[in-house]
Design a protein that fits this description.
The chain is α/β, with parallel strands linked by helices. The protein has two domains: 3-196, inorganic pyrophosphatase (n-terminal core), CATH 3.90.1640; 203-325, Diaminopimelate Epimerase, Chain A, domain 1 (Roll), CATH 3.10.310. It contains 13 helices and twelve strands. The strands form two sheets. It has a seven-stranded mixed sheet, with helices on both faces. Strands 2-1-3-4-5 form a five-stranded parallel sheet, covered by helices on one side. Helix 2 runs parallel beside helix 5. The longest helix has 18 residues, at 27-44. 47% of the residues are buried.
Length: 333
């Protein structure tokens, strides 16, 4: 075993560990938490409890498939020695959990670069920004520790890798190998794909179509940028707009006391422009909306409470500056 990993995990021996993840936990976050819990219990004799704010609809479907309830994965209540945050780089993403962070007891395991406000509370980091999914990090840890993962954990890790890599559009040199090893254990790859791509319900379909109808299109050199506003499903809508052909999609949900902005970009846009949606767009926008932002280079978002319209104007300013090009509105005709 890698000695640095041994040193990193040695602190957990016989400890009470809380594992948590961001609100509306996606398959990558949920899988990472569940598999990491098994590793810590097997190899470090830990008591481990998973606490969370909420999980996504797709994560709920996956958990039902493997007959797991996160509420049951709780060995203790109240006091803990460490809290490990997986797939979470920003305290605002934690919901109520974030109110209980204790300095020097927070450990990060993630494939996002940590936000400064969460890094300052952290006792240690295991951050691999070149990995497409935290699930891949956790799977490689299970191999390193020779952990005997359950069928449920392996099924969820495969789903997490597929989901956060966008079906292998984002990979590093070992992503395919990790997925291959998981499938080789007897997992039903087709079943995982089916569960990750459920038929969208009527409300999500309508929201996606409304986002397209309402969007303003801009061109900046070779790039097509779409900006739209919506009352729900902004992340789904931004993905749909990219699939339709935009290079960058920004969809905002602006309410009286709530602002959520979701951004998605094509792989080509990120590679050629060098723009990181998390670092260059969403994190600077966070203070404007009195919230915080974060995410990936090609998929990011921010949550706040005010100044939604101002934030959209600032996003356009940042893009013009980063691209060194003016954004020209494309006529609807």
């Amino acid at each position: 075993m890698n000695s640095s990993l041994h040193d990193f995990f040695n602190r957990f021996q016989n400890k009470r560990i809380v594992i948590s993840f961001h609100q509306n936990g996606d398959p990558d976050a949920v899988a990472s938490a569940i598999a990491l819990r098994e590793i810590l219990k097997q190899k470090y004799n830990c008591q481990v409890s998973i606490i969370f704010d909420s999980v996504s609809k797709i994560s709920t479907t996956l958990l039902e498939e493997v007959k797991l309830k996160l509420e049951d994965l709780c060995d203790f209540k109240n006091e803990y020695d460490y809290i490990i945050l997986v797939d979470t780089n920003n305290p605002v993403q934690l919901g109520e959990t974030g109110l209980n962070l204790v300095k020097d007891r927070v450990v990060l395991i993630d494939h996002h670069l940590p936000h400064s406000e969460i890094a300052e509370f952290s006792a240690a980091h295991l951050i691999k920004p070149d990995y497409p999914a935290t699930s891949q990090i956790i799977f490689e840890l299970s191999e390193c520790f020779n952990a005997n993962l359950s069928y449920a954990s392996k099924f969820l890790l495969l789903a997490g890798i597929i989901y956060d890599s966008r079906c292998f559009n984002l990979i590093n040199t070992n992503t395919f190998l990790a997925a291959y090893k998981l499938v080789k254990t007897g997992l039903d790859y087709d079943k995982v794909l089916f569960l990750l791509n459920p038929l969208k319900d009527r409300s999500e379909k309508i929201a996606r179509l409304k986002a397209v109808k309402r969007m303003d299109l801009y061109e900046a050199g070779e790039w097509i940028i779409a900006i739209s506003k919506l009352g729900s499903f902004e992340a789904s809508a931004s993905r749909a707009i990219i699939q339709l052909g935009a290079d960058l999609a920004i969809v905002a949900n602006i309410d009286k006391d709530n602002v959520r902005i979701s951004g998605r970009a094509s792989t080509e846009f990120v590679k050629k422009t060098g723009i990181n949606l998390a670092k260059d767009l969403m994190e600077p926008i966070g203070p404007i909306i009195k919230g915080q932002g974060g995410g990936h280079s090609s998929a990011a978002g921010c949550n706040g409470v005010v100044n939604g319209e101002e934030a959209l104007e600032k996003i356009k300013e940042i893009l013009a500056e980063k691209l060194n090009l003016s954004l020209k509105k494309i006529s609807a005709e």
